[in-house]
Design a protein that fits this description.
Shape: globular
Structural class: mainly alpha
Distance between the termini: 29 Å
Strand content: under 5%
Order of helices and strands: HHHHHHHHHHHHHHHHHHH
Helix content: 55-70%
Radius of gyration: 23 Å
Number of strands: 0
Largest sheet: none
Length: 412
């Protein structure tokens, strides 16, 4: 199971590599025009749209990247199958399609079907169908559709079945999370801590949106985000469900990235640094954490669980202290700086020393866990070739790759 998750984590590296620069572009655009999101400045609009074209389609990138990475010979046919699966599932389960099928208003859960989890699921469906059916032989009158040409067609059929299952399962899970979030809103700092923990824990499944709708918007009459900027909330209370993310996104995760870099293998440090440092900058400046989190959540799920726990602790601690900050985009430096002008802000500067403490905690906890349990974070992945990877490399036209594979097989 761990090897499977680690292979999945490696498959995500290709699409994840696109995300840090996209997040930084959006952050700069938002910094230029924080109130209009580009409506008041053409440069801001250009940067936000350019970055958003990648960030907003992250799930599609995951569907394609995972499909290729999990395919036995990394064939592009699997990428097409992953994309086909994505198109089938997200179309069949879109709010408009569901409403047409049922003749009634669609459950709000279907408005959140285009998540990273669905993208990864589609990639896995595409790669699985490719691995199983790429050599399929059909009768002569269907010979044109034999082999790799059959993969996308079969994937579409499998995706229809999966869509039917998700049609019943997705709203139940989503609704249960909304109900749970509503139930803990009266528990103050403890509720903020539980929310912070679950918010991170649910990101791989894309279900954090269910909880966000409870605490940030008007599902349970909290509306933390809107009230913070409009001044309609309660001073010292409003912002309680946003403030605790700043120490983690601005300080904790970047420090965790530094720990991953310091524990990377010597021959992989430069490669790890290029990803980790860009993702850390993206997290600090914009609060976009997915490039960093998806870089290790499947490679080292235990470490991601630790990260979720530390986020919950941060949310709990900050909720107890006399400091409040909020965001329109995410909990990065840009929104922290803009919080000083918000009517419901309370001593946002206090988040800096809190964040520095969490940076130290993150660094040493991450470093200890990585070394103690030999976690396969970026730069620490196994160099061993699996049988399928070796066959694919040996059949390559790149003679340098073939030579390297032979040397690896000989142990030299």
């Amino acid at each position: 199971m761990m090897k499977y998750l680690q292979r999945l984590g490696k498959s995500l590296m290709l699409p994840v590599a696109c995300l840090p620069v996209a997040g930084i572009l959006m952050g700069i655009g938002y910094w230029i025009d924080p109130s209009g999101w580009g409506a008041n400045n053409v440069v801001s609009a250009f940067l936000i749209k350019a970055g958003g074209s990648i960030i907003d389609n992250m799930a599609i990138l995951f569907a394609i990247g995972v499909a290729v990475g999990m395919a036995k010979d990394n064939d592009g046919t699997a990428a097409l199958a992953g994309l086909v699966s994505w198109l089938v599932i997200t179309t069949l389960l879109s709010s408009g399609t569901v409403a047409m099928f049922t003749g009634a208003e669609a459950d709000p859960a279907f408005g959140k079907i285009q998540t990273q989890f669905i993208g990864i699921l589609c990639g896995l469906l595409g790669s699985s169908c490719y691995n199983k059916f790429r050599n399929t032989r059909l009768p002569d009158f269907l010979a044109f559709f034999s082999g790799k040409r059959s993969v996308a067609i079969i994937t579409a059929g499998v995706s229809i079945v999966v869509s039917l299952i998700l049609f019943f399962v997705w709203p139940v899970v989503y609704g249960a999370l909304v109900a749970f979030g509503t139930a803990i809103t009266s528990t103050g700092a403890i509720g903020a801590g539980i929310y912070g923990f679950l918010n991170r824990l649910l990101i791989p499944f894309g279900l954090h949106h269910a909880l966000n709708s409870v605490f940030w918007f008007d599902v349970a009459n909290i509306n933390d985000l809107s009230n913070f900027w409009s001044g309609e909330g309660t001073l010292g209370v409003t912002g309680i469900y946003m403030s605790g993310f700043f120490p983690v996104m601005m300080f904790g995760l970047p420090a965790g990235a530094l720990a991953m870099y310091h524990t990377a293998k010597t021959n992989k440090k430069k490669v790890a640094a290029s990803l980790l440092m860009a993702a850390a900058l993206c997290s600090f400046f914009t609060g976009v954490t997915e490039p960093l989190e998806f870089a290790f959540m499947f490679l080292a799920p235990g470490l991601y669980l630790i990260h979720a726990g530390l986020t919950g602790i941060s949310a709990f601690v900050v909720a107890l202290l006399p400091t409040r900050a909020g965001f329109n985009f995410s909990a990065g430096f840009v929104d922290w700086f803009l919080s000083f002008r918000a009517p419901m802000a309370v001593s946002p500067w206090l988040l800096i020393p809190i964040g520095l403490v969490f940076a130290v905690v993150y660094y040493f906890v991450f470093r200890f866990a990585i070394v103690k349990f030999n976690l396969k974070t970026p730069g620490r992945e196994d160099d061993d070739y699996g049988e399928e990877e070796m066959k694919a490399s040996l059949s390559s036209d790149d003679f340098g790759e073939v030579a390297a594979t032979i040397m690896a097989g000989l142990g030299g």
